[in-house]
Amino acid sequence: MNKALRQAVIAGNWKMNKTRPEAKALISELIPLVKDAGCGVVICVPYTNLETALDATKGTNIKVGAENCHWAESGAFTGEISAAMLAEMGVEYVVIGHSERRQYFGETDVTVNKRVRAALNAGLKVILCVGELLEQRESGITEEIVGMQTKVALGGVTKEELKNIIIAYEPVWAIGTGKTATAEQANEVNHYIRTVVEKLYDKEAADGITIQYGGSMNAKNADELTAQPDVDGGLIGGASLKAPDFAAIVAAASK
Ligand code: 13P
Predict the structure, then answer these.
(1) What does the pLDDT read at residue 191?
(2) Fewer CB within 10 Å: N-end or C-end of the chain?
(3) Mean pLDDT over residues 78-90, rounded?
């Protein structure tokens, strides 16, 4: 399958980090470092930083995303934020189904699907996260888990809508642990996800979809990971909080 048919995207997931002044400072440092990127550059930031990030990135090649959204348009859902609210602000991307949401906040494949559909309906681009736990990898069921997560999350999503979805393969055991999947492991699962997309849609859809790797990707290992045929960039946690590190990963994916 041909890498030239799709765009590599490096997305930062800031998680629950950075106050507004800190966000502004990080973005100012990042802008000149990534201005000539040969890949897509996205920063997904806490809700409280969205306005700051949108202002600070105006006229640059950095796109802004949120880290989650609710499936309803509005209503009695205390503490939640709708996709329409994000879209109205000018936010372009939203991360959905991150393993931390699944692990700590009861997110399931079904609620992930509801959120994906709401985000697409609101005109947002989705970074859909899938990935297996360590026990699941050790039991040899990585493909079953990741395949099911992908299939349920994409339920009701048309081939046309799929163009607004990036899938991020993030093995849970590699997130924030410093344990990166080897380039071969990352490529193997990314390739498997592409075959799932081909079965659900067709070859054109599978060739065109951006599938990132995420989990302890850093300035040192980004070259090898992003060079893999089925790894189209990455979703970066810790290393996205330091401008030079994030920029080095962007440079690796630009090659
Ligand atoms: P780390 O890069 O900190 O391992 O986090 C990965 C991640 O969860 C990105 O969404």
Answers:
(1) 98
(2) C
(3) 98
Torsion 171-243-33-165 (CA) sign? positive
Two structure tokens written together for 208: 């065109």
Q: Cβ(180)–Cβ(215) under 8 Å? A: yes
- Considering the segment(s) 9-242 as one domain, its CATH architecture is Alpha-Beta Barrel (3.20)
Token pair belonging to 109? 């494949």
Contacts of 92 (CB under 8 A, 6+ apart): 42, 63, 64, 65, 124, 125
Letter for the amino acid at 75?
G
Ordered by start, the domain boundaries in the chain are 9-242
User: Catalytic one among 67, 98, 100, 132?
Assistant: 98
244's tokens: 């030079």
Pocket test for ligand 1, best of 218, 221, 235 (most atoms within 8 A of CB): 235
| Lowest pLDDT segment from 3-7, 106-110, 188-192, 202-206 | 3-7
Query: Ligand 1, atom 9: nearest CA belongs to which residue?
Result: 237
Instruction: Please compute the mean of the pLDDT values over residues 90-98 and round it to a whole number.
Output: 98
